[in-house]
What we know:
By secondary structure, chain A is an alpha/beta fold.
Amino acid sequence: MGKTRNILLCGVGGQGILLASELISSALVKAGFDVKQSEVHGMAQRGGSVISHIRYGEKVYSPLIELGTADFAASFELLEALRYLPYFNKVTKVIVSTQKILPSPVSTGMDTYPPDVLEQLKSRELTAFPVAAFEAAKAAGDIRAANVVITGALSVFLPVDEKIFLEVIEKRVPEKVRAVNIKAFLKGREIIKTY
Amino acid sequence: MIKLKEKILLSGNEALARGAYEAGVKVACGYPGTPSTEILENLCKYEGVYSEWSTNEKVALEVALGASFAGVRALATMKHVGLNVAADPLFTSAYTGVKGGLVIITADDPEMHSSQNEQDNRNYAFAAKVPMLEPSDPSEAKEFLKIAYDISEEFDTPVLLRTTTRVAHVKGLTSVGEVQTSSVKPGIEKMPEKFVMLPSNAKRRRIELEKRMRLLREFAECFPENRIEWGDKKQGFITSGVSYLYVKEAFPEASVLKLGMVWPLPEKMIKAFSSKIEELYIVEELDPFIELHVKAMGIKCRGKELVPSIGELNSRIVREAITGEKGAEVFGPAPVPMRPPNLCPGCPHRGIFHAISRLGVFIAGDIGCYTLAALKPLSAMDSCVCMGASIGTAFGMEKALGKEGLGKIVAVIADSTFMHSGITGLIDVVYNKGFSTVVILDNRTTGMTGHQPNPSTGVTITGDSSAVIDLEALCRAIGVKHVYTVNPNDIEASLKVLKQEIARPEPSVIITKSPCVLLPEMKKRKDKELYLIVPEKCTGCRTCLKLGCPAIEWVSLTPEETKKLGYKEKQKGYSRINATLCYGCGQCAPLCKFKAIRVAGKEDGKNT
């Protein structure tokens, strides 16, 4: 188990990042790791930029990831991957949803959405994995499962069996949407595996 | 997550709820406030615990104190600023002491993730002369709460337990235990010398209080949660709460004195520790609380001269502060558009703020989701201080300006905040002959903290139906003669009432009635009519963008594109409605003079 590893999740309030964090953290616990996960509630969630820290290992102290030390990152919205760049390093594996949600300065025409997010990541030699999560979730049956698509994509890199993840989803997600979410999760895994 | 004898992942707040249950708490009260809200939201699910959302924190602490007087274990929860409201009963409850154990959880918010200030509530423990425990993670939070009840009953004192955002909203492995019972028996027992704080009695209790603090200082010396972790003695740290974790992460080899109880401090232990350490550092978030007291003991140490007192810490900040060396930067920040939080699409508050902002008045605002109206493009709030302050500040401005102020100031407050502490402000306006116009935003819930019911909602914390406080009748009973209820989604009609009332030299209240769109029943609505913008009709005037609705998007055009689309040469772009975001509130449609915004046809509902 050894060294503490860091997973950073980021995106926009309302995208289901807290649920994704919970699924990942629970799966890591089931796999036998000590886990700390940190998030912020309240005002930040109202359509603002959100970040969740997940740290796992033999014994985790700080609940917060230090700048430059994310081992894995998943951005649930395209440009948010750039906002948290200082948390990454040259070997950070970055999963990026290609879904765009316009920040208010952009939607009101005061600012522009960066047209080259993926290129900017690549120009810094980062290993970025773009994932069309919105489309994949739509195909799975519900656009709201885009967060679980990203969870599936990220899960490929984690030292946790697929089976454990599926058990966690079964337990956590209401029965009505369970099948859709499992489909979405497996789609996310498939996207990364076929890269 | 109720499961026995197994380590489970719990947030600090979930762990505190579990801890309260295991401690045998019978009455738990609080007012929602980030980062404290989830304690009661979880605790109310446990059997045998009465939980309530109280009208405000002062009431919450008074109810908890009463429960303690009746001989049961009681809990009051609140965010840091909530303790300001509850400070009055806090200070005197230190005199009365308790019967059943009484714990007050204060959840501080360094960094102001969701708060208006970042006060350090450890100062309250010192000022009110009550012990304070400070856990560093969820597992400790649960255990410390149980210990707090034992201390409360053993020493006859209320106990403060302080968390911060990075304890309350951190998930960590926590073990669950058995339910304890208190040895105190419930019942009525008259003890006026202890419970009636007339000066004659208070003077005697004042002496008791000093005795108690002396005993607690002795207790602190052998309290197992004040512990020394010996390591390298060149560097030693005194720390508590989440800062302890940052120290362990940054300096795993160093010696650490971890304080589980931050008031009163174990002086002998601190002296013994520091005498063996070459360089002593105090690492704590916000105020130099431990540092000041350690320095007062005559001990040489360094703290806030190195460690920032603003915002929260992390292991990197601690390492850099102590070593003086900057950590390597791998990637600098990339320039990206800001993404400030925003009122949701369809939020009824947006409509009324758009209307008020057109009056050109000073808008005295208040605490809640609606404080976001202060941001561009609405820019519809000119002051926001604390819960309930809108009415008092508006009234004060009015008194300062006299007749000159008529028609120039509006107070805006929402239902939950009005119940919390707006009512007294309104009474002041009526009693002291003001002419304030007060807008009460009634969205039937406490939105910002995640939809807790309040006295005007009609249900309790557990969802049981309850009395609905009639806001209109309440305002009339206070003596406001002019009370109106408007639909905030109808901007023009609301504006008409506003114009009429701000000009009136008498107090008036305008209640906007429209439920929060995030309420489950509103999310499930099937009768929503979504809107679209007919591209050919849009002239690019940008009027609709002034609403700041996330669903309305501006599309810039190059001169070639303008020409190709057949727009006038000068048109720089057009607006469109993102169908996946539109809620169908209809606020935007009447704003468009060119009638470009209309209900999307049921067949061709998709217009992106």
